[in-house]
Amino acid sequence: MPVLKPISGHSSARPIMLYLMKKNRSIAADYINLDAPLDERDAVCFDWAAEMDATRHALGNDVPWRGMRVRTYKHYIVSPDPKDHIGLDDLRDLTRSWASEHFGDYEVAIVYHDDNERGIPHAHVVVNNTNLETGRRLQDPDPAALNHSLQRMAAERGLRHFSDTAELAGVTARAEKMSKRTRPRSLQREYVRRAEADLVAQGEYSWTADIRARVRVARTVARSEAEFRGALSAMGIVVSDNSPKAPRRDWLYSFADHPARRISGEKLGLSYGRERLLSSFKLKGAGHLPDASEREIARIAKAAIEVGDLEGLRRLARAVALIDANNICCLRDLERFRASDYAKRVWTDPGEEEAGQLVAFIEQAGILPERASPYAAREPASRRQSGGRRGEGGFSSRAGSERLRDAPAQSQQQRTGNEKGGAR
User: Fold this and answer.
1) Minimal CA–CA distance to 115: which of 22, 40, 5, 46?
2) Whole-number Å distance between alpha carbons of 398 and 83
């Protein structure tokens, strides 16, 4: 039977990450809600601690609460029964399923080792303390309930398990009642299907990639749902609700002049879905760039759309993704990124091979300030009162709202000139 050992962390996630990666002990790694590289070798070296620390910092969840020491993460060790002779693939399946069931709304890093005396693979599960949907801190789950769930999953896979059949409690009971149909199709923030990736790699037009680029820019410059919809409308994209009968509420993105080409947000990745975007807007745009940077991004996007420069729009979108993924706020951060080890850099697009060009584009475009603005500590999400944010009057009412308002959408002829049939 697998054994579950919980440990609480009270510091940055970097020490535990360095410990787990020490002496190249990691044999594999899995991630939930983290923009990790798709390549298995790069994923093992991914700097997930920086992303976890940035999330807690942005939402004020790395400071003590009511005089109590802050718990920044939970660390669970999943050790299978040696008699099962479990392989790495089976352990990964068991651990991923267990972590997704209980921590699907959190940032999770799973690192696998086999450095014990008998070479038996085991898993280290590190869960960040911030719920990405609500912004609230992780309440310490019931260890017994988590263990019951792990034993149940082991039994389902034909592994040895504790025979206690008592009714599952706490989070396990709630998870049992939740239908699999209500879960998102993918837990990746950025989800690129093979058809889209193949078209882009061949230099051909993909309307899915086109929509993705526009939505990525809009979510960067918008700070409310109204601004988000307004920015997309200015870029020729219509936002609508999916069917009331759908298991999950989501938004559909389509071209204004070609409504048949539409795709739901979560098919592009969790960070494009309705729930995640509304949560981001509710949390007052944590992680947004300075006003001047947002205006410059909007200006470049408008210019690209006016001349039908899809590649320019995609380059801007990839640059924005690189800035967001690596927590780059100014040119000094960009220089540190350029000087860092390749393995420590975060890429959000598969097969990223244009690092130097993207960095040069960011510098030349004038997107970033020379230095970052002084950081103002944020209150924990649970203490913030609902209310307005900067520019809460909507996209069209903000100063400089004309930045995208009059931008014409790229014509159908420009978008479909080199498209192959209806392939995405």
Assistant:
1) 22
2) 64
Whats the size of the chain, residue-wise? 424
Neighbour tally for 302: CB within 10 Å: 20
Tokens of 342: 């390749």
Return the exposure string of 187-218: e unless at least 16 CB atoms fall within 10 Å of the residue's CB, then b: bbbbbbeeebbebbeeeebbbbbbbbbbbbbb
Tell me if 70 sits within 8 A of 63, measured CB to CB: yes
Chain segment 267-294, per-residue pLDDT in tens: 998 888 998 888 777 765 544 566 666 6
> What Cα–Cα distance (Å) separates residue 230 from each residue in 227, 278, 395, 400, 407?
5, 15, 6, 13, 11
Side-chain half-sphere CA neighbours of 131 within 13 A: 14
Sorting pLDDT into bands at 50, 70 and 90, what band is 103? very high
All domains of the chain, ordered by start, with CATH?
Answer: 3-178 (3.30.930), 194-416 (no CATH)
State how far the Cα of 404 lies from the Cα of 401, in Å rounded to an integer. Answer: 7
- Cβ atoms of 298 and 402 within 8 Å: the answer is no
Residue 136 has pLDDT above 50, yes or no: yes
Amino acid in position 26: S
Strand-pairing partners, residue 178, are none
- Identity (one letter) of the amino acid at 244? P
Model confidence, pTM: 0.45
The string of pLDDT tens digits covering residues 7-57 is 989 889 999 999 998 878 889 999 999 988 888 878 888 899 999 999 999
Encoded amino acid at 346, one letter: V
